[in-house]
């Protein structure tokens, strides 16, 4: 008798790691499948009751209320027509008839499986047909004089019939509300049962996980610890350290595999060193290429100025000298040329300013944004006066940055708020500032035409215009320049999606005293 436990222990000690894992995984899967079945049943029951409430009970009550609303509209229209003889009172009656039919058509399949609800609906339909047959249809079909006379004659009968109809609809809605309340209570109990079920499932899962963890610790991790110690020495750089496995045969095979991997790592390390050198060269080449692209954009924009200036000057000279002397088509072509040259001049200037961000103006220092904003408002004073804009602002702080670039930032943001104002509505612009840690968060809000959600990311890209040049002039570079200035200062910029009355642009800048990000950018080539 005493030899049986010893034999069992000997058999278990002969199990390999894989066999222990198979038994453990199989047991865990059985437990999880059982728990999953219980949890699935609880979820199915809750889902079924929820569908009953959402798909049948609530829509039935809503459609019953719509039937009542439609009948009340009919009664209101008939009463108005019967008192005044005015045809416009028949419009709510006709609309009410159509709404009643639609609501009853939707309600009928919803109460198909409920005898009480079917009886209530039949009662309502019967009383509604009686009132319509005795009062509504005769009055609506008659002339104005006949309608007034007939409505006066059947006023008492019509009131009594509609009061009965009201009581029937009230009983119907009361029954439907009681059914919905019962379904809600059942759903609450099902949800409670579901929550308790999942709580028990979670406890069982934690218990199973604890047992699995303890089994793995005793059967796997302890034998692996010695192998792991040797592997960590290799990981720390001792690639000449050979690995010798101990313990079960599968762990010895594992040690052999790790030893093979160590030798392969030695070979791969030699190869990676060579690849890293090549990658560094490519990164340096990419950095140089980006610098050359920025320089090209600047030089191209700058060198295009002179030939474009000549084109613009000569086309304007043609317009002044020969305007009105040629035919209408010639004048139109000259006007097109002048307009195109002027727009190209604006575009090149904007591109030139965009390429200068971070290249020409790169003087980081403490910047008083109050003074910068005041100068910007002075520059925009004519536009502010012409549009009747009202601008309010918080006290602005001192930040770390470049004065010229930050002036361009305010200039573009405020110009956009003035330009994209609502029709026949003076702009109201609000500038706010709130400190959040090492950064200041600024917001420029307006009551203009706003930006649709699908375009709130695209507007910060170059040449992204949402309107034609005839509706709103511009090149589509303003917000792209704002994004480049803000990101060059180590901040972020976005459009507030929750602001619906106009546009609210939010951006951040480093506060004075937090110069690390700014200095890092300043040292970049």
What do these coordinates show?
- The protein is an alpha+beta fold.
- The protein has 14 helices and 7 strands.
- It has helices at residues 3-13, 17-84, 90-110, 115-141, 144-153, 155-235, 249-303, 305-322, 328-356, 369-379, 381-387, 403-419, 478-488, 516-522, and strands at 365-368, 390-393, 398-401, 428-436, 439-445, 493-495, 504-510.
- A 5-stranded mixed β-sheet has the order 2-4-5-7-6.
- α2 (17-84) packs antiparallel against α6 (155-235), α6 (155-235) packs across α7 (249-303) and α7 (249-303) packs across α9.
- Residues 515-525 have low confidence and may be disordered.
Layout: helices, strands, pairs:
Blueprint: H1 3-13, H2 17-84, H3 90-110, H4 115-141, H5 144-153, H6 155-235, H7 249-303, H8 305-322, H9 328-356, E1 365-368, H10 369-379, H11 381-387, E2 390-393, E3 398-401, H12 403-419, E4 428-436, E5 439-445, H13 478-488, E6 493-495, E7 504-510, H14 516-522
Parallel strand pairs: 2-4
Antiparallel strand pairs: 1-3, 4-5, 5-7, 6-7
Helix pairs in contact: 2-3, 2-4, 2-5, 2-6, 4-5, 4-6, 6-7, 7-9, 8-9, 10-12, 12-13
Q: Note the main sheet.
A: 5 strands, mixed
**Alpha-carbon Rg, integer:** 40 Å
Q: What is the arithmetic mean of pLDDT?
A: 76
Q: Uncertain runs with pLDDT below 50, 5 residues or more?
A: 515-525
Shape by Cα distribution = flat
Helix amount = over 70%
Report, as a whole number of angstroms, the end-to-end distance. 86 Å
Helix tally?
14
Strand order of the largest sheet: 2-4-5-7-6
Query: What order do the SSEs take from the amino end to the carboxyl end, as H and E?
Result: HHHHHHHHHEHHEEHEEHEEH
Strand content: 5-15%
What structural class do helix, strand and pairing data support? alpha+beta
In total, the number of strands is: 7
């Amino acid at each position: 008798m005493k030899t049986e436990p010893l034999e069992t222990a000997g058999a278990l000690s002969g199990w390999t790691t894989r066999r222990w894992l198979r038994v453990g995984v199989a047991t865990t899967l059985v437990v999880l499948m059982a728990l999953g079945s219980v949890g699935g049943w609880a979820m199915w029951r809750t889902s079924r009751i929820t569908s009953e409430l959402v798909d049948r009970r609530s829509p039935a009550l809503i459609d019953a209320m719509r039937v009542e609303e439609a009948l009340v509209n009919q009664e209101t229209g008939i009463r108005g027509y019967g008192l005044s003889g005015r045809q416009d009172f028949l419009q709510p009656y006709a609309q009410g008839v159509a709404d009643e039919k639609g609501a009853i058509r939707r309600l009928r399949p919803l109460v198909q499986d409920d005898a009480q609800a079917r009886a209530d609906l039949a009662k309502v339909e019967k009383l509604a047909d009686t009132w319509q047959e005795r009062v509504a249809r005769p009055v609506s079909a008659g002339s104005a004089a006949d309608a007034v006379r007939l409505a006066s004659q059947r006023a008492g009968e019509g009131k009594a019939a509609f009061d009965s109809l009201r009581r029937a609809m009230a009983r119907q809605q009361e029954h439907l509300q009681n059914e919905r309340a019962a379904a809600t209570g059942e759903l609450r109990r099902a949800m409670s049962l579901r929550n308790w079920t999942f709580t028990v499932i979670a406890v069982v899962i934690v218990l199973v996980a604890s047992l699995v963890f303890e089994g793995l610790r005793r059967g796997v991790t302890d034998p692996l610890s010695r192998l792991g110690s040797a592997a960590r020495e290799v990981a720390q750089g001792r690639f000449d350290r050979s690995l010798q496995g101990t313990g079960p045969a599968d762990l010895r095979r594992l040690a052999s595999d790790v030893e093979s991997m160590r030798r392969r790592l030695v070979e791969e390390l030699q190869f990676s060193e060579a690849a890293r050198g090549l990658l560094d060269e490519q990164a340096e080449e990419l950095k140089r290429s980006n610098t050359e692209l920025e320089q090209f954009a600047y030089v191209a924009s700058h060198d295009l100025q002179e030939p474009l200036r000549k084109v613009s000057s000569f086309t304007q000279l043609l317009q002044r000298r020969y305007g009105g002397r040629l035919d209408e088509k010639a004048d139109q072509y000259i006007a097109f040329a002048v307009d195109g040259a002027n727009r190209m001049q604006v575009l090149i200037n904007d591109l030139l300013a965009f390429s200068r961000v971070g290249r020409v103006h790169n003087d980081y220092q403490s910047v008083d944004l109050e003074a910068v904003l005041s100068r910007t408002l002075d520059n925009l004073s004519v536009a502010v006066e012409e549009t009747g804009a009202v601008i309010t602002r918080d006290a602005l702080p001192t930040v770390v940055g470049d004065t010229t670039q930050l002036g361009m930032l305010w200039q573009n943001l405020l110009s956009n708020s003035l330009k994209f104002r609502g029709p026949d509505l003076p702009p109201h612009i609000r500038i706010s500032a709130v400190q959040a840690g090492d950064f200041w968060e600024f917001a420029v809000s307006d009551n203009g035409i706003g930006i649709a959600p699908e375009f709130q990311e695209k507007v910060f890209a170059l040449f992204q215009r949402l309107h034609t040049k005839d509706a709103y002039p511009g090149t589509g570079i303003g917000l792209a320049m704002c994004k480049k200035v803000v990101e060059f200062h180590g901040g972020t910029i976005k459009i507030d999606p929750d602001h619906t009355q106009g546009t609210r642009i939010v951006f951040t800048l480093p506060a004075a005293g937090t110069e690390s990000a700014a200095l890092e950018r300043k040292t970049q080539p």
